[in-house]
Amino acid sequence: MKPPIHVDRHSLILQMVLSFMALALLTAVAVGIPAILLIRRQVESEAWAQVDQGQQTAQVFYTAQQRAINDLARLTSQRPSIPLLLSQGQEEPLADYLETLQEETELDLLIICDSDQNPVSQTGTAVFANLCRLPDPTGLHTFSPEEATAPVWMLAAHPIGDETADWGTVIAGTALDDDFVHQMTAQTGLQHTLFVNELPVASSLPGSAAARHAAIRQPVHTAVAQNLTSPATLLLNGRPYNSSRLPLDAPGLADEAALDVADIAATERRHTWTLAGSVLLVTLIGSALSVGMARRIGRPLTDLTRAATAIQKGELDTSLSISSPISELTQVSQALESARIELRRALLELQAEKAWTERLLEAITEGIVVLDEDGRITFFSPGAERITGYNQDEALNQEADTLFQLVDSGESFSRSIPLPGQQGKIRLNTPDGRHPIMAVTSARLSPPAAGKSGLVLVLRDVSDAEMVHQLLGSFLANITHEFRTPLSALAASTELLLDQAPDLNQAEMQELLNALYLGIVSLQTLIDNLLESASLEAGRFRVYPRPADLGQIIAEATHMMRPLQDKYGQRLVIQLPAAIPQVQADARRTVQVLVNLLSNAIKYSPDDTEISLSAELENSWARVSVADRGPGVPTGQQAALFERFVHYGAEESKSRQGVGLGLPVVKAIIEAHGGQVGVDNRPGGGSVFWFTLPTINEQGTK
């Protein structure tokens, strides 16, 4: 076998490879770098040219807006109704007339000034300064927050009527606010921000003026931006902008136009990477030509060395068969290949047996613990790790009495182990603070590796079964009471009606009928919750959303609960928006949700208190809230409140019993609609239970 070939750094092959690579790299760089610089300068020039064009368009837009306001002021002053109303001193009709004119002209402000420069009538956005006394109202003006709600105004003034009578002046104005700069953005294609004394007051940038105030501004002194006024770059929310400021007619007032250059920068980077990729491709092609010769010389030995190194690392899938004109090298490779195949087969068999054993132990949910004759742990299964919270490294070689501590028991763990063939129950302390109940069985075992007789323990976590047993008993007791109470009331009321109906007056008859109605509503609510809970448990729960009137749903639920509310002297305050939205909901089940929430609010609120039911719009969702003055819900228990059989504040309520199904049913119904449900603590005491439903817009879509 020939010795390995070592390539000397002075060898011809290496010199050829390095020469070809250097030549290809230098050629590509010499062409690529100037092209990249040219593209960058061209893109930058076009971006600043767009800013310049946008500023010129903005100047034209301001001039056009001022001219339009001047025309509107002149047309308004020539209306014959204004002198007539002024001459008659009819201020209210004049104000109404101005309001109509404002709506027609879409102006933000109309003011009538008398000949003494005092305002006679004004409509539109509040301006507290006396504009009638401005020396020259026409043009741009800035005001402080105490003088106007908007800091910048474009005004125009024109005398009323003709020159024969001095009726005063009409002042028309438009606020240069966020809406105005958004209109300008639509005209120029740039983002605009108005500055008053270097403070942004209106902006079309994302986040408005407050976001612009937080932007990072860096002045620009490059030649491509020398024709612009105060050119600068901005960094707002991670996006770059090119900007320039246009001084306006009012003192301290300027319009900053900003061009989002993120996409332009991305295009520049894309072109740069394209050229860089081309440079790399040319370099690789040149390198490939030079490397081809070297690969033909030492390929067989290189392949054999690589395969042997892979086997050394445990990678037995790499074949050792190589093609070589040297017979000895071929024989060595064939012998190594046979050894690799045999070693791989034996390793796969061992891995399969190990995997089968591990899967078997992991599939056993019970924990298996082996103790030696001294009570030390010699084996700790994955199941034991899951149910005890200890990992295998912590448990092995530890005394069982030291590792396993019983809850509320003075006995040691070993004394609590049942005899072989029997079963016992113990409650353990775990590292995560739980106290699971374990069913323990034991058996004597002498594993081959142990050498001595040991004890095998099988631990099974029966905490859930014990909890279910307790919950089932509590549920049966509560459901019995929940049925017995309304049935007893129904029986008593019915018996009185049968026996004394002729002798009862109208008020007594109404009281008995209310009692019957309350009993029926209570049974209906309980049965509905039981049926929905059974549907949830069986996986058959469904809702059928369709367009529904939220106001009608609220009215039906409050009507059902009114007698129970009157029984305890409670007041229900309903707060709904002016336009009650339609929701995409199952109306019957949504009424059930409100009945459950109102029933809880009545149950847990003191007598003679106020319960609030409100609805509001949040984007495309309707949020309905029921607020009470009950004991409230601790923050740590709010999430668990919507689980089955969970109660809260029962010791303070009018009824200490309850099945614990109402709120889980509420959660299931609302989440089936795609909404959310939750509870918050109410300021001043009490709770606010809320849920959301999807609304339907004017086109009938969600």
Describe what this molecule looks like in 3D.
The chain has 702 residues and is an alpha+beta fold. It folds into five domains: 12-45 and 266-307, no CATH class; 54-263, 2-Layer Sandwich (Beta-Lactamase); 364-461, PAS domain (Beta-Lactamase), CATH 3.30.450.20; 468-538, Orthogonal Bundle (Helix Hairpins), CATH 1.10.287.130; 546-696, Heat Shock Protein 90 (2-Layer Sandwich). It has helices at 12-77, 81-88, 91-105, 178-188, 208-214, 262-312, 327-363, 382-388, 392-395, 400-403, 463-500, 506-538, 550-567, 587-604, 662-672, and strands spanning 109-113, 119-124, 139-142, 152-159, 169-175, 191-196, 199-203, 216-219, 232-236, 239-247, 253-260, 367-371, 377-380, 405-406, 423-429, 437-445, 454-461, 546-549, 571-575, 582-585, 610-618, 621-627, 677-681, 687-696. The longest helix has 66 residues, at 12-77. The two termini are 79 Å apart. The model is unreliable at 650-657 (pLDDT under 50).
